[in-house]
From TrEMBL:
This is Ribonuclease 3. Its EC number is 3.1.26.3. Mg(2+) binds at E66, D139, E142. The gene is rnc. Transmembrane segments: none annotated.
Amino acid sequence: MSKQKNSKHERLTGEEAWAAAFGDVDHQPLLDGFGVSLPADALRLALTHRSFANENGMLPNNERLEFLGDAVLGLSVAERLYRDYPDRTESEISKMRAGVVNMYALADVAREIGLGDHVLLGRGEQLTNGKDKNSILADTTEAMLGAIYLEHGFQTAKDVILRLFKSRIESAPTVGLHMDWKTELLEKIAGRGLGEPEYNTTISGPAHDPHFTSTVSLQGKVWGHGEGHTKKEAEHHAAREANDAL
């Protein structure tokens, strides 16, 4: 029976394939994990990865919702950190936020609520265990947050975020302040076709008090500048500025 069912789904295309794949899974446990309700069409869109959409007649995918969810997530976490740590500088709370809002944190949250089993993926991603890829889990989590925002508004979306990211926000002062911005930059540009970042660092000043200036470029375009008393520090700040610019 199962083989016949799979064969039938393989023959479907477009909207029929979309409806069949979505209907194969009970999504209520996922909604329970987020603590909200969503209309079926909104949930289906939020769970549709571009690989599935492209394989089935260029259906809509969740990338626009991902864009929206990323903004809602960033603002929610930034506001909480701003209020909870009034004595921290802009630079410090920026690092703290990056420690909470990054691909690995998002993917971990997704695993905690079992999101991977609900994502609609193309055959290629299915064969390479796409349901457990950090990038796919992170992007789909943001898409879900975007859908929640559109359906319920900012306050509900923020409440969901603060609950799901509670432990990470609480540990932000110890984790975020030691953020590796060069690694974060590599993660951010992964899959964008921008190549590897190139750092160009110069030194000035006397030997006993050197001053380093660094730039980081992607495909010949400078995205960040940084200064420091060591080469590492200058590159660190350049990478941070590039992350903000991107």
